[in-house]
Amino acid sequence: MERPPNLAAAIDAAAEALVGVLDSAVSRHQMAVSPTQLRVLSLISSRPETNVNGLAELLDVVPSSASRLCDRLEATGLLRRVADPRDRREVRLVPTAAAETLLRELKERRHRAVQAVLDRMPGRVQHDLLLALRAFEQAATAEPQSDSSVRTA
Hints:
About 60% of the residues lie in helices and about 10% in strands. With about 150 residues, the chain is mainly alpha-helical.
């Protein structure tokens, strides 16, 4: 099967539309934190072993910048720094219950916004989209093949 000539462009446009839908779900509700702070909370929520240096690596910033971000989140009651029980010299970043609630509410708003768009699509197209997204995810997370075995369609 030959690849449609504008498939990458169509995916890029769809990704931009999706980002717009997700962003509008956030911007319609006055958020007390910046998009960068939300990203930090999301990262540390999904990675319980994260410390400031690990966060800096994930954000591709210097540790002092990551530490200042954490200071602001800690001041708003969304982040705690706790000593690692295995090594008291290590300090882990832990989202507070308020941060977890914020992230959960944000996720629910985003899901509702995406669902509103999906509801405007025919059921068969939704099913095809689901299959295509699953295949895309599998391809994106699969180990890259060597150049000699990559198919060119």
